[in-house]
Amino acid sequence: MLEKSCCGGNVIILACSGASNVGQISNEAAKVLTNLGQGKMYCAVGVGAGLENFVKTTREAEACVAIDGCPVACVKKTLENVQIEPDVYVLVTELGIEKAPGFDISQDDVAKVAQAVADGLGGGGCCS
Amino acid sequence: MKIQVLGTGCPKCKQLTANVEAAVAELGIDAQIEKVTAIAQIMKFGVMLTPALAVDGQVKSEGKVLSAEQIKALLG
């Protein structure tokens, strides 16, 4: 049985998880990054709802990662509403991935987004 | 024999690499040790937790820092 991930640190990862291909890529990338120990996916909706504990946990994280699927930038605006600036911000469509209706996503695109976040965190990993 | 350590480069990944190097040296075997840090490559192994260890392309462990002794048993 698997025991634990690489490290995890106190890095909060918020993905827009929106209703489009790029939203779902953001969601999958957040899951991959969590599994690889780069941080922990957290509920962006909880922060958006202004729930005290969610906002507090995000604010107190060592680093906050925001992944938006498209330029509507829901996660970034959600954080702005509670005066939090992400330490790492990745916009999926800026990586050459086009927004399209439907939920067909490729693992190559997920990896590209996850790698962009990992590079933004320093390239060496969550706690190096 | 090709041994690959899969991980993005955090201390546990580095420790696993060091343990692999120790195990290979103690066994006196001819093995190529490679660190795989690119997420796209790690995902292609189907690995869900890191650090992970693959031998000749087959994933042998995930999410653990195996000791040199454990690695020796795995390679032996």
- The low-pLDDT segments of chain B are none
**Largest sheet entry of chain A:** 4 strands, parallel
Mean pLDDT of chain B: 94
CATH domain fold name of chain B: Glutaredoxin
The strand order across the widest sheet of chain A is 2-1-3-4
Structure explained in plain terms:
The complex is a heterodimer of chains A (128) and B (76). Chain A has a single domain, classed as Rossmann fold (3-Layer(aba) Sandwich). Chain A is 40% helix and 14% strand. Chain A contains five helices and four strands. The N terminus and C terminus of chain A are likely disordered. With 76 residues, chain B is α+β, with helices and mostly antiparallel strands. Chain B has one domain: Glutaredoxin. Chain B is 41% helix and 25% strand. Chains A and B meet through helix 5 of A and helix 1 and helix 2 of B.
Give a brief rundown of this model:
The complex is a heterodimer of chains A (128) and B (76). By secondary structure, chain A is of the alpha/beta class.
What are the main properties of this structure?
heterodimer; A: 128 residues; alpha/beta; Rossmann fold; 4 strands; B: 76 residues; alpha+beta; Glutaredoxin; 4-stranded mixed β-sheet; 41% helix
